[in-house]
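Saturday, quiet lab. Running sequence design on the structure tokens for the scaffold JK sent over.
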């Protein structure tokens, strides 16, 4: 789900950063449908216009770290 939107962001990251660095982009398909200063603004506006699960909100920053997350836990599984 949202693979197309994420691929679009990754494939065009350099160009998007030049234009929108620091902004939160709302992406549907291969289209930027909104540009916002904060995640909350992007989410609030998008939820009024689009169905949940049909859009990606991505902070526009350079580098792979921008879209890669690592989770750590202290949980022990036996």
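Result came back. Writing it out in full:
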């Amino acid at each position: 789900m949202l693979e197309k939107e994420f691929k679009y962001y990754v494939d065009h990251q350099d160009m998007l950063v030049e234009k929108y660095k620091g902004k939160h982009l709302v992406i549907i398909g291969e289209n930027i449908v909104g540009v916002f200063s904060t995640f909350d603004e992007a989410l609030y506006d998008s939820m009024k216009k689009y169905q949940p699960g049909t859009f990606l909100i991505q902070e526009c920053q350079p580098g792979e770290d921008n879209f890669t997350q690592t989770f750590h836990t202290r949980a022990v599984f036996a």
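Notes for JK: The two ends are 32 Å apart (CA to CA). The mean pLDDT is 89. Ask whether to fix the surface positions before the next round.
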